[in-house]
Amino acid sequence: xxxxxxxxxxxxxxxxxxxxxxxxxxxxxxxxxxxxxxxxxxxxxxxxxxxxxxxxxxxxxxxxxxxxxxxxxxxxxxxxxxxxxxxxxxxxxxxxxxxxxxxxxxxxxxxxxxxxxxxxxxxxxxxxxxxxxxxxxxxxxxxxxxxxxxxxxxxxxxxxxxxxxxxxxxxxxxxxxxxxxxxxxxxxxxxxxxxxxxxxxxxxxxxxxxxxxxxxxxxxxxxxxxxxxxxxxxxxxxxxxxxxxxxxxxxxxxxxxxxxxxxxxxxx
Length: 268
Ligand code: SF4
Description:
Strand order of the largest sheet: 1-2-5-6-7-8-9-12
Number of domains: 1
Radius of gyration: 18 Å
Number of helices: 8
Bound molecules: iron/sulfur cluster
Largest sheet: 8 strands, mixed
Shape: globular
CATH class: Alpha Beta
Order of helices and strands: EEEEHHEHEHEHHEHEEEHE
CATH topology: TIM Barrel
Distance between the termini: 44 Å
Number of strands: 12
Strand content: 15-25%
């Protein structure tokens, strides 16, 4: 029996409004582990709230699963637009992140995307591993301590340090950089001004405003990695309230006008 029949770190492809058809790679595994515990997290319960880097999924298991996906699907490369490291928690917690990206690139010719919460960007080994990715998207949901604690509920990091490390990475990284910002309620004028000033300092290639459209799983379920987790019963899913589209539209226009950075948001 192949090891990947026990836990498959390759899932999807899922349809992403940001990246198209995205083949998911999960470097975290069966126990959801993250340095944040976002109120809207689609994974549901974060079972391990941690900043400790370790090897959760051996690189050879990912290599085997990806090779299997490619060998089973004759048109694998045509069926996907990107390969995305995300999955069951924060991918930069994986100590073998560099090795995983190198392995993916040895098998797939599609761009490698890493979706990160940015909380470990103070570590030079994390920043240097991320340099290998073609695209990096950093979650920047808050610019004030109050919002940071209420939305992301981070372990061991305060907003000023978080923003400083995101800024350092923005200076160093030469690939395509996006900031992803989940809007749960209309922002104050002060928060908007601080955010725009931060963007002007970092100048990412793109801003992606988002809404919590994916339902939150009430329990931990591996299927919650997917966009539309069919195997989860509707009674285990909790729909989240979304702000009206015009709030995203006007914030997006303000960002583009004040920074010149392309800003996208999901259509209703
Ligand atoms: S950073 Fe991502 S995985 Fe971690 S709690 Fe937030 S949404 Fe969930």
